[in-house]
Amino acid sequence: MKGVRIMLLSLMTLLLLGCxxxxxxxxxxxxxxxxIYFASAEGRALIPVGxxxxxxxxxxxxxxxxxxxxxxxxxxAGSGMADYYYAYDLACPKELDPTNxxxxxxxxxxxxxxxxxxxxxxxxxxTPVQGPAQSPLLPYRVLPIDGxxxxxxxxx
Length: 156
Hints:
alpha+beta; 7-stranded antiparallel β-sheet
């Protein structure tokens, strides 16, 4: 009987430890397909490091902007010379209201105007840094295209 208990305890421990690395996103996953071209007025906002763009409406009939819209930022990635762009859903994972779009403060953090949670966005994490939110922002995939970027639904 003692051997069965030890075996069950070991199995439960392995199962619990195996799930620790999985991130749980609170924001519902919706289709995302949004091209941004650097030559456009919209895309020029992303050229400088720290430049960002809040997308709250689809630009064409074939565009899709996720649950609450898209936040794209030209972020930092350490000492390399490459450009890094990150994209997140604009909905706060605490509020889950697609009409309550995140804002960006002067520290380049995403801020919820309702619950005042703040999120780190310039290094690609989207993690909460202050406030009641516990879940990170839902990240979107950013793909390079000729003359710009394509924001698409992530593979979670």
